[in-house]
Structure formats: structure tokens, C-alpha cells
Automatic annotation (TrEMBL), chains A, B:
CC cofactor: Mn(2+); Zn(2+)
Protein name: Allantoate amidohydrolase
InterPro entries: Amidase_Cbmase, Bact_exopeptidase_dim_dom, Peptidase_M20
Lineage: Bacteria, Pseudomonadati, Pseudomonadota, Betaproteobacteria, Burkholderiales
Residues that, per the record, bind Zn(2+) 1: H77, D88, H184
Keyword field contains Magnesium: no
Similarity comment: Belongs to the peptidase M20 family.
Presence of the UniProt keyword Cell membrane in the record: no
Cofactor: how and how many bound: Binds 2 Zn(2+) ions per subunit.
Keywords assigned by UniProt, alphabetized: Hydrolase, Manganese, Metal-binding, Zinc
Quaternary structure and partners: Homodimer.
One Pfam short name: Peptidase_M20
Origin superkingdom: Bacteria
Any one Gene Ontology molecular-function term assigned to this protein's record: metal ion binding
Length: 414, 414
């Protein structure tokens, strides 16, 4: 009978937490000395678990099972946000370590191959998803030569500093890697609000990020009557109200949009703003709805400009990220394990956050499992999850992993 | 017959413009080397006009007529905004110079006393209205010991650098200074919009300046459903809409309010803002209306907080500036001169901007005269006024000055 060891799991998570510990949180930025210490510790633990482990040429820790494939790859990341929590990323990697050990300790599953990865820089300290992108064969050398962290350090220099510049890069083995699983904390409050313990991810949402600039006329705030003002800030505020209304018409319960930043120019008490910038992001699990929101936004911009007093234009946008579906068969394995171990305590849900799984899913069938975040908080020192949820999540992931590997091996699920 | 010399007036304005000329605009910050050069040039011109001239211990250039009082004091400022126009302040000072010359050249008025001032730092490079405040006897030594410019230079050090630290300070002479006149560009677009050439100022508006802080909950912009968000930025936007509606109910055509700056915290695409700051200013010529707007704002804040999701509080405010009435008899002299020289081309109006006149009016009957600003623009390099308007404004100011001095001397107006 497959059994994880809850104490060993929690101890390893607790030990990883000590690298870069800052109050209850963690500061362990990609390729920093403390991140490299954590990577070397992790490599040691994976080696102890019997995996053949390396830290590759971009910094990814990769533990390869000594068993023949087909293999299930389990991964996430051990580096953190600038003011990160202890579980964001770390949970999935240590789940992989524990699942590899648990499978090896069980007579029926000891021949299964689980490879474990801690992908470098999911959070984008230098270049987001660097490890998973490199792994699936995307070209990353340009990013390595040009990306810098907030301190201005070049990624290529950071890799040299870490002694990795000459190390080989781990690559996806198409014949071996037949499935990818990424367990993660939810980073939102839905499971908690619904009283559930496990989330089975259906889709990683798509994202649009863009900047709108309103151009009016800078003027003296005392001498310019309201009637003749062309106040770019007031126009921005009015635009947001219309946009909210338009997006509400299109949204379902999971659609989100955020104005995260507003800059008024010149930004003083006494000057009617002549220009105003608005930073807008919206996310949805449906590619069609994202396109409908883009269309609605374009119509709003057109109408606004037709009215004339203040103009608005999109001045910048990130490349669109389309929603990524999780593999249906893999979802079913997680759902089956969840129902077996925690009947009625799980639900299907989209992931509102980005994950390495969205990179890998384009090359290998992929799935994700969520455990609840207390108060829905993440990317914050106080991010946390109840021990019982951490343990249950690992039990569900382990059982799903075994089922997936049985299925890959041509066996019927237990 | 009193006659100004248009060429001399425009030449002096043009020469003053060369000090700190930057494109069409001027950068001549208080007590900077170029500002001191301009002050020394001005002192020379005032001396040439027969006035006894000094640069006083705070930097004010003061030309005192050698005639006995009662005297009309004419003043404004020759220092500028960081990116200033060539007429803001300069116009009133050079009008004073030209009027002193014109009166001296006319047999009937040569015994009249016109004193001319360029008050230091109306614009607040170090400490707003420093010159006029010092002149009327307000305590300015604390400001001199503590105020700094944007480069961090202490006002007391700047005065030392300018060689003024030991110079005596010019003070109001109650027995001599019986009226104050400050000609100025309008800095708004009303005269132009109405096709008028002269504004007779009724009131310098009162000002309220305050900062509101909205506190919500910072959260992940991807994983936090709209329904449970406590978005401080969205709350701020909603608040502005309500405030606009409330203020519109109270406003007349001259009431103005401006949200000049908005800061969302932390200010990134991916984070629901947890806090938001709004910088609000409102101005009106009526003290009662300003109080009504304050009351309405307090009620909005109370109602907003009663709804609960995001709180709002006033976190900072400047001391209120109450409206300052211009002297009715002096207004009538300007109106009379305007009607004589430009029949039907003048109107009464409040000043939406602040001026040294509001400091001096508490001690001496004061008046202001406006000429049109092209496009209503000021505090900008492109600030400008048609030569014809500059000349007409000086003619009206000169005739009003003569009428005021005749009246002060107990004579009936011409």
C-alpha cells in the first residue's frame, strides 16, 4: 500500500523554508546565494531518494529516476517572489520528492519512474518560466544575454556567479516524459470559501496586459473652469466606470480585471492632468471571452475618442497569454484520488495564476492540483496552508501519480 | 496727458525674458544666479526711472519713489516656476516700472509716488510668498532657517550665497502705502473665451488641499474573484464619481476641483491595490461654498465607510486658504480706466490662482488687473499674451494708477 510520510514531508518543507527565511516568509530570489544553497540541499535530498540529480545550465534542479520510463514528471519552483511565502512553488517540489520516495518504498510501485524538477525563475526575477522554457526547447539564450534582475545584474553573469554557465541544460525526453504534474497552493480564497480541501485545475487562465494613455490638456487647476477642461485624469476615471460596466456584461464568476496602477501627469495638487496612464490586466479561462473583452475595450476606446475632449490609446501591451487546458485524463486521475481520499471535499477550478505547467502543457499532457491558501493570501510573507491540507494534498497527489503511472504502463488503475 | 511708452515696455519685458531664457519659456528660480542677475538688472532700471532701489534681506527688489506719499505700491514677481513662462509675474513688475516712468514724465502726475516691488519667491521654490509675507511683517525667520528648494539647498544658505543675508528687509510703511495694485496675466482662458481684453479681479479664490487614503486588501490579481476583492483603487474611482456629483450640486460656474494625483499601492499589473491615495484640491471665491464642499466631502467619507468594504480617511491637508476680496473702490478705478480705454472689452472675474495680493490685501487695500493668456496657458514655456493686450493692460493700469493716486491725494478723478 502506497503511503507518504507526513513528518518527512513537513520536515523537508520546513527545512527548505530556512533558506532565506524572513519572519514567517521567505526571500529566495532566483540564483541568489541563498537560492543556490537551497538548490544544493534539494539536489542532495533527491540524490538520497535515489534519483540521479543535477543542477543544469540555467539553474533547474532535476532529479531523474533510475527506473526506465514512461515517467511522470513532477515539478514546480523553489525560488520565490521578492517578498515571498514559504509554500509558493516549494510545495510542489517537495511533494515530488516525497512521492518519489513513497513510490520507491512500496513494492507495487517501486519500478515506476518519477522525475522531479525545481524549475528556475518561474517568478521572473530575471526571465519568467526560464527553467521550463529551456526544458521544452524554447530558445532562451537571448534572455540569458539580456535579462537583468532589479539590481541590474545580467542573467548570464548570475549564472556564471552560480558556477552554472558551463553546465549542460536538461531537456524534455519525449519518449520518457509522458505526463507532467504540478501540485501548488491555490493562491486564492475559493477552496477556503467553499470549504474544500483539493482543487483539480481545469485550465490555466489566459492574460491580457496593456497600458492605456489618456491625453488631454495640462492646465492651471485654479484658473481653468471645469467647463473647458480637458482633464486626462477625470477622463481615465470615467473610462474605468464604462469599462467595468462593459466587462461585467461579459464576465462569468471567474473573470477578473484589475487596474493596478494609475499615473497622472504631472501629478500635483495644482495642475489639471494633461496625460494619464492606466495599467490594465484581465484574465479568463476562455480564449473566446478574452477576445470578446478585447473587442469591447476597442469599442470603448473608439467611442471615447469620438467624443473628442480627451483622447485615449493603447500605448503598450504584453504578448497575449492564451488559456491552457489541463489534460482531461490526468484531471480524472487527480479527481479519482481526491474522491477516494477526501470524498466531496474537492472541486474543479481554473488557475487564476500562471505556472510552469502552462509552458510544459504544450509539449506533454499536464495537470495541476491545488491545496487551500489560508485567507487566499500568497506572494506575501504571511502566506500559509494548514498542515492537514499539506499532508492530504500530498496523499492525493501520490495516489494520482501512482494511478497515472499504472495507466502509462498499460495497467488498469487499482 | 499720461502716456506709457509701448516700445520701452515691450523692450524691458523682452530684456527680462533673456535671463534664464529656455526656448520660448524661462527658468529663473528664486535666488538662482540667473534670478539674481535679473534682480540686479531690474534694480538698475528702477534706479534709472528715479526710484531709490534696494534688493532686501529676503531678495525682494524694492524701488521707492523719491516723492512723498500717499504712495501706490505696484508689484508682482520676477522669479518663475521650474518650467515657467515669460510673463507670469514679470508683466506686473515691468508694468510698475513703466507706470512709474510714465507718471514721472507727465506734468500733472510727476509728484505722485509709485513704489515698485518684485516680491521674492511667490512661486514657492523655497517658501511661497516669502517676499510679500516679509513685507507685511509676518514671521519668516523660521522658513528661512528650514525651507529648502528641490535640490535640498537651505533658504538661509541661498540668501548667503546671493550676498543678501545681512541686508535689511523692506517693510510696509502704513502711513505711506495706501493702495496695492498687482497687474498679472490671467493664467486661464476666460477672457479669451469671452473676447475680452481686461479682467478686473473681484476676489482671489480660497483653496482647500487634502489627501484621502483608501485602505482595502492587497491581493493576487489572478486568483482573487471580483466578488471578494477589497480593491482600494476601484473604491477610489467610485468615490470620485460620487464626489463629482456632490460638488456639481454645490458649484457655480467658477467653482473648480481637481484630482491631481492618484497613487495605487503597490502599483503593478498583477496586484489588486491594497491602498490608494488621492490628492484633491478645490477652489472657490465664496468662503461659504468652500465650507459646504468640505461638509459634503465629510458626508461622503462617512457614507463610504459605513458601506464597509474599503475604508477612506483624510490623511493630510494644507491649512485652508480663505478667499480674499479685492478692494471695491480700487476695482472701480480699474473698471473706470478699462471702460474709458477699451469700452465693453473688460469684465469682472475672480482670480483662480494665488498671488502676492492675497497676502498684502490683509494690510493694504489691494486690487488686481488681468490681461488675457493665449489659450489660457501658464506655468508652461509656451505661455504668451498678444503685444496689443500687453500694451492695453499697461495703459489701463497706468490710468487706474493715476486715478487712484488722485483719489488718495484728495483730488477727484480726471
Amino acid at each position: 500500500m502506497l503511503k507518504i510520510d507526513p513528518d518527512r514531508l513537513l520536515n523537508d518543507l520546513g527545512h527548505l523554508r530556512t533558506f532565506g527565511a524572513t519572519g514567517p516568509g521567505v526571500v529566495r530570489l532566483s540564483l541568489s546565494p541563498v537560492d543556490m544553497d537551497a538548490r544544493r540541499w534539494l539536489a542532495g535530498r533527491l540524490n538520497d531518494a535515489g534519483l540521479s540529480t543535477t543542477i543544469d545550465g540555467v539553474g533547474t534542479v532535476f532529479g531523474r529516476s533510475r527506473n526506465a520510463g514512461p515517467a511522470l514528471l513532477i515539478g514546480s519552483h523553489t525560488d520565490t517572489q521578492p517578498t515571498g511565502g514559504w509554500l509558493d512553488g516549494a510545495l510542489g517540489v517537495i511533494y515530488g520528492l516525497e512521492i518519489a520516495r513513497a513510490l520507491a518504498e512500496c513494492e507495487e510501485t517501486r519500478h515506476f519512474a518519477v522525475d522531479v524538477a525545481s524549475w528556475i525563475d518561474e517568478e521572473g526575477t530575471f526571465s519568467g518560466f526560464l527553467g521550463s522554457r529551456s526544458f521544452v526547447g524554447e530558445r532562451v539564450d537571448e534572455a540569458i544575454g539580456s535579462a537583468r534582475n532589479r539590481e541590474g545584474v545580467l542573467l548570464s553573469d548570475a549564472l556564471k556567479q552560480a558556477g552554472l554557465a558551463e553546465a549542460p541544460r536538461v531537456r524534455l525526453e519525449k519518449a520518457r516524459h509522458k505526463a507532467y504534474m504540478e501540485p501548488h497552493i491555490e493562491q486564492g480564497g475559493r477552496l477556503e470559501a467553499h470549504g474544500k480541501s483539493i482543487g483539480v485545475v481545469t485550465t490555466i487562465v489566459g492574460i491580457r496586459e496593456l497600458k492605456l494613455r489618456f491625453i488631454g490638456q495640462r492646465n492651471h487647476a485654479g484658473t481653468t473652469p471645469m467647463s473647458i477642461r480637458r482633464d486626462a485624469g477625470a477622463a481615465l476615471v470615467a473610462f474605468i466606470a464604462r469599462m467595468d460596466e462593459a466587462f461585467r456584461q461579459l464576465a462569468d464568476a471567474d473573470t477578473v480585471w484589475t487596474v493596478g496602477r494609475i499615473d497622472l501627469d504631472p501629478g500635483s495638487f495644482s495642475v489639471v492632468p494633461g496625460a494619464a496612464d492606466m495599467y490594465l490586466q484581465f484574465r479568463d479561462a476562455s480564449a473566446g471571452r478574452l477576445r470578446a473583452m478585447e473587442t469591447a475595450l476597442a469599442a470603448l476606446i473608439r467611442d471615447f475618442n469620438a467624443e473628442g475632449k480627451v483622447s485615449v490609446a493603447m500605448t503598450d501591451s504584453e504578448p497575449p497569454e492564451e488559456p491552457v487546458m489541463m489534460d482531461a485524463a490526468l484531471q480524472a486521475h487527480i479527481a479519482g484520488a481526491a474522491e477516494a481520499l477526501a470524498p466531496g471535499q474537492w472541486e474543479r477550478m481554473p488557475s487564476g495564476a500562471s505556472h510552469d505547467a502552462q509552458v510544459i502543457a504544450h509539449h506533454v499532457p499536464a495537470c495541476m492540483l491545488f491545496v487551500p491558501s489560508i485567507g487566499g493570501v500568497s506572494h506575501d510573507f504571511i502566506e500559509d496552508t494548514a498542515d492537514a491540507h499539506i499532508v492530504l494534498g500530498c496523499e492525493v497527489a501520490a495516489q494520482a501519480a501512482a494511478d497515472i503511472l499504472r495507466h502509462l504502463a498499460g495497467q488498469s488503475p487499482r
